[in-house]
Specification:
This protein is an alpha/beta fold and 220 residues long. It contains nine helices and eight strands. Strands 2-6-1-7-8 form a five-stranded parallel beta sheet, sandwiched between helices. A hairpin with an 8-residue loop joins β3 and β4. α2 packs across α4. The two termini are 16 Å apart. The chain binds cytidine-5'-monophosphate. The site of cytidine-5'-monophosphate has 14 residues, from α2, α4 and α8. Its main location: cytoplasm. It catalyses: dCMP + ATP = dCDP + ADP; CMP + ATP = CDP + ADP.
Length: 220
C-alpha cells in the first residue's frame, strides 16, 4: 500500500516542522523533515573538518554520510552514524552554513533519493513531508500540496522566541539571508501551480494545524 503524501513547503521560520509534526500526529501519519537531512549533512561536513564552501569535498563526504531520520512524529530523532544530532542540527551555526551544502546539485540528488526511499517504506497510511522543494521536485504528484507562509516579521518574532537571548532583528536578518540563498536553488516563496497557500500570519499554532488539516480534508 503506497502512503498518501502531504507535501508542505515554506520559508525559514514558517513553523513548517512543528505544524507538520502536529498534523501527522493528528492523522496518524508519518512525518519527514527534509531540512533535517540537509542540516545533518552540514553537521557531518563540519565534524569531518571539511569547509562547507568546498563543494567537491562536500560531495565526497556523502560516501560516509550515514544519516537516519525518524518518521515517527511522536519520537522524532536524527542520527548520523551513532551520534544523536537531533538538537545539534538546530544550532544557529548550522543554520548559517546549511544553504552552502544544500545548493550542491549532487547533494540534492542524493538526499532526494533517500527521501523517496523513506516515503516508500512508510507503513502508516500517509506521510507529511516538509521542506523547500517537496511540492515541486520531491513529490510533485502528491495529492495534497501546501505552501505554508507567514510575514517576515512574524517568522522572525516566532523564531527569536524559540532561541532564548536572540534579538528579533538579528534573527530576522539570518532568516532573510538563508531564504535569499535557498531561493537561488529552489522556488518556495510563492506557490507553484495547484499548490494551496496557508498563511499563518494571523493564526496561532492550533489554528494553523486546523487550517492545514482542512486543506487535506478538502482534497481527499
Ligand atoms: O527546513 P529547515 O529550515 O530546517 O531547512 C534547513 C535548510 O535545508 C534550508 O535552509 C535549505 O538550505 C535546506 N533545504 C533544502 N531543501 C529542502 C529542505 C531544506 O534545500 N527540501
Amino acid at each position: 500500500e503506497i502512503p498518501v503524501v502531504v507535501a508542505i513547503d515554506g520559508p525559514a521560520g514558517s513553523g513548517k516542522s512543528s505544524v507538520s509534526k502536529a498534523v501527522a500526529r493528528r492523522l496518524g501519519y508519518g512525518f519527514l523533515d527534509t531540512g533535517a537531512a540537509y542540516r545533518a549533512l552540514a553537521w557531518h561536513v563540519q565534524a569531518s573538518g571539511i569547509d562547507t564552501d568546498d563543494a567537491a569535498s562536500v560531495v565526497a563526504s556523502l560516501a560516509s554520510f550515514d544519516v537516519r531520520i525518524g518518521t515517527d512524529p511522536a519520537g522524532y530523532a536524527v542520527h548520523v552514524g551513532d551520534v544523536d544530532v537531533t538538537t545539534a542540527i538546530r544550532d544557529p551555526e548550522i543554520s548559517a552554513v546549511v544553504s552552502r551544502v544544500a545548493r550542491v546539485p549532487e547533494v540534492r540528488t542524493h538526499l532526494i533519493e533517500l527521501f523517496r526511499a523513506s516515503m516508500a517504506l512508510e507503513s502508516r497510511p500517509g506521510i507529511v513531508v516538509e521542506g523547500r522543494d517537496i511540492t515541486t521536485v520531491v513529490a510533485p504528484d502528491a495529492p495534497v500540496r501546501i505552501l505554508l507562509t507567514a510575514s517576515p516579521e512574524v517568522r522572525a518574532a516566532r523564531r527569536s522566541a524559540e532561541l532564548v537571548g536572540s534579538a528579533t532583528t538579528s534573527v530576522g536578518d539570518a532568516l532573510r539571508a538563508r531564504d535569499e540563498a535557498d531561493s537561488k536553488v529552489v522556488e518556495f516563496m510563492t506557490a507553484a501551480d495547484g499548490v494551496t497557500t496557508v498563511d499563518s500570519t494571523e493564526l496561532d499554532f492550533d489554528q494553523t494545524v486546523d487550517a492545514v488539516i482542512a486543506v487535506i480534508g478538502n482534497i481527499q
